[in-house]
Amino acid sequence: MTRLRGAHAHANRQEPAHAARACGFPGGTYWKTWDKNIREHLLRNQLISPDDLNLYRITDNTDEAVKIITRFYRNFQSTRFVRDLLVIRLKNAPADSALAALNEDFADIINGEPIKCIKPTLEEIEGGTTWIWRASRSASTGTITAACAS
Questions:
Q1: 59 and 81 in one domain?
Q2: Which of 67, 48, 11, 7 is closest to 31 using CA atoms?
Q3: Which tens digit of pLDDT belongs to each residue from 88-117?
Q4: Where are any strands of DSSP class E within the chain?
Q5: For residue range 50-84, what is the model confidence (pLDDT) as tens digits?
Q6: Is residue 119 included in any domain, yes or no?
Q7: At CA 86, angle to CA 140 and CA 41, rounded to 5?
Q8: Largest CB tally within 10 Å, which of 25, 47, 53, 123?
Q9: C-alpha to C-alpha distance for 61 and 108, rounded to whole angstroms
Q10: Distance between CA 106 and CA 110 in Å, rounded?
Q11: Is 150 inside any structural domain?
């Protein structure tokens, strides 16, 4: 998203081509160098897992970037803390099979109850956001709980 905003913000500026390429514009080297450093320093030293490389995508294609971003936001609404819960708000409830897969995939870091659906918290009801589905994690205990509410 930064690349899209950056490219759009400077679209009418007259800058040397090498400066644009260095700053992450299409055809540039900034993000490719960033990715190379992630792989050579974090992945090689096992500070991240190979699956962590799926947390980002690098593209020079504007249409592909728009597709990636809009696909993510078609269900994701927001994250925030409600008391000691990290609440992940979704526009659509996760299927039971998706909750089961999350519990399996994150079993090594879930302490306590499994990921599950819960009703809106009092703070969310008072704030008028009861329609959003939720997934949450306890900040104080490290317990992950999914919260889904209609």
A1: no
A2: 7
A3: 778 888 889 998 998 898 888 887 777 777
A4: 76-82, 85-90, 133-138, 144-145
A5: 999 999 999 988 899 999 999 988 888 888 787 77
A6: yes
A7: 90
A8: 25
A9: 37
A10: 6
A11: no
- Cut 0.85: pTM above it: no
Distance, in Å, from the CA atom of 26 to the CA atom of 72, rounded to the nearest integer, reads 22
Range of the domain at 16: 2-73
Tokens encoding 113: 């109850």
Predicted confidence band of residue 134 (pLDDT cuts 50, 70, 90): low
73, 102, 130: which is the final residue of a domain? 73
Instruction: Please count the structural domains in the chain.
Output: 2
Is residue 87 located within the same domain as residue 45? no
Whether residue 48 is found in the same domain as residue 100: no
My answer on whether 94 and 58 are in the same domain is no
- CB 102 within 8 Å of CB 116: no
**Cβ–Cβ under 8 Å, residues 77 and 129:** no
